[in-house]
Specification:
Helix content: 40-55%
Strand order of the largest sheet: 7-8-9-10-11-12
Largest sheet: 6 strands, parallel
Shape: globular
Number of strands: 12
Strand content: 5-15%
CATH topology: TIM Barrel
Oligomer: single chain
Order of helices and strands: EHHHHHEEEEHEEHHEHEHHEHEHHEHH
CATH superfamily: Metal-dependent hydrolases
Mean pLDDT: 89
Low-confidence stretches: 39-43
CATH architecture: Alpha-Beta Barrel
Number of domains: 1
Structural class: alpha/beta
CATH class: Alpha Beta
Length: 411
């Protein structure tokens, strides 16, 4: 019988050295009013995580990020196996070698860590003694992640996880030559297909430091850190054209951040403009065969004071799905709130009356671990909420098993 895979199509394995915290703090200093606005308009998003119960959630997140990448993968497996649940009166999700989600059963889990390029253009900061900003080169984070995957495979050769990372890219930080070199090195040995991905994941036990072993599964883009999917022209347009042409030609999937929160290095309005699905309309007209996952399904937490939440981005993504068969969306972070699944099921039911099973075929399960620890206790709790949600098992299976194969591998 074929191996039954559960997919977490959107997670992060971040060490404390990876994010550019200095850039984040500088943004708070110079754009404090924007931060206050976001805190007021989305009061239950992150602010409570810093202050509730002595900062319990933030401390929990730091307990993960304080580890090396290989140790984080071990922690994730131990979480599924119930090591932490046993200490807190919960149950293991994996029992007798089987992961149970609703009435579904899975033999293995494939996790997709998305690398974010936190690098920034070099600049002086004369307000502080050590006045040169740390480079935060993405290659260092990639090295840590790949070493972590190799560590996990060596320490747990029969481990429950297969791991397929996405390469973080920000064309604004490259010239044409370095962009081509990065993509060429990362995807020289690229092969699509679930079987090839599984082989590549297991082969990481013998990893020799090379990127030429079908290591990366796709490309991760993060507009709030300065990536514009469709610049108005010039060299920046040429670089994005090259990136998307490269991915389209080779069938390499893309994940782009698409909610109005998150780690940002841009003024608020500019970050929203780059992140909006509307910004992707001309890009998809230029590259209609792209496979692209709009992360967080366009969730908008911020709203004009005195008005309710907005869902224009979600509706815009659905419109893009109708037009382009390669457009997907994941629910990473959204599922921290159990009530989200009631809203999602209502949207799917409404859309089925209009477009058949469009959403059922294009939605992906994602957790946003470990960032989701700002709103929830654990990776296993996030999966457990999905398991117990109102979604029927046939839809759960599509989101966490069938659709990810289609998105990741074009199968």
């Amino acid at each position: 019988m074929a191996t039954r895979f559960f997919f977490d199509a959107h997670c992060h394995v971040l060490e404390l050295s990876h994010p550019n915290f200095l850039d984040f703090v500088e943004g708070l200093r110079h754009r404090g009013l924007e931060t206050i606005y976001q805190g007021l308009s989305a009061p239950n998003f992150i602010m409570t995580s810093f202050f509730s119960k002595g900062g319990e959630r933030l401390r929990n997140l730091l307990a993960v990020m304080g580890r090396q990448a290989g140790e984080i993968f071990e922690l994730m497996e131990d979480d599924l196996l119930g090591l932490y649940a046993a200490r807190h009166g919960g149950e293991a999700l994996v029992r007798d070698g089987i992961l149970r989600v609703g009435d579904l059963e899975f033999d293995r889990a494939m996790v997709v860590p998305l690398v974010m390029d936190f690098a920034a253009a070099p600049k002086d900061n004369p307000a502080i003694w050590y006045d040169r900003q740390p480079p935060k080169e993405v290659t260092r984070q990639l090295r840590d992640l790949l070493e972590g995957i190799a560590h996990y495979r060596r320490s747990r050769p029969e481990g429950f996880l297969d791991i397929r990372p996405f390469l973080g890219v920000n064309t604004a930080l490259h010239d044409r030559g370095t962009l081509a070199a990065l993509l060429g090195a990362a995807f020289e040995g690229y092969q699509s297909g679930l079987e090839a991905a599984t082989r590549a994941s297991r082969a990481m036990a013998a990893w020799d430091g090379s990127w030429k072993a079908n290591v990366f599964a796709g490309v991760k883009l993060y507009p709030p850190l300065g990536f514009d999917p469709f610049p108005p022209g010039g060299i920046e347009r040429e670089k994005t054209d090259y990136l998307f042409g490269f991915c389209e030609e080779r069938g390499i999937p893309i994940v782009t951040h698409c909610d109005d929160m998150g780690f940002r290095d841009l003024p608020l309005e500019e970050a929203w403009r780059y992140s909006s699905p509307e910004r992707w309309s001309p890009r998809l007209r230029a590259n209609p065969r792209l496979r692209i996952d709009f992360a967080h399904f366009g969730m908008q937490y911020s709203f004009r004071l005195g008005q309710g939440p907005r869902n224009e981005w979600t509706e815009a993504i659905v419109d893009l799905m109708r037009e382009y068969e390669g457009v997907y969306a994941d629910i990473a972070f959204n599922g921290c709130d159990p009530m989200y699944y009631d809203q999602l099921f209502s949207l799917i039911a409404r859309e089925e009356r209009r477009s058949g099973e469009l959403l059922s075929d294009r939605l992906l399960f994602g957790s946003d671990f470990a960032i989701n620890l700002l709103k929830i206790r654990s990776w296993s709790e996030y999966i457990g909420i999905f398991s117990k949600s109102c979604l029927p098992d046939r839809l759960k299976e599509r989101m966490c098993s069938i659709n990810p194969v289609s998105f990741l591998f074009g199968e």
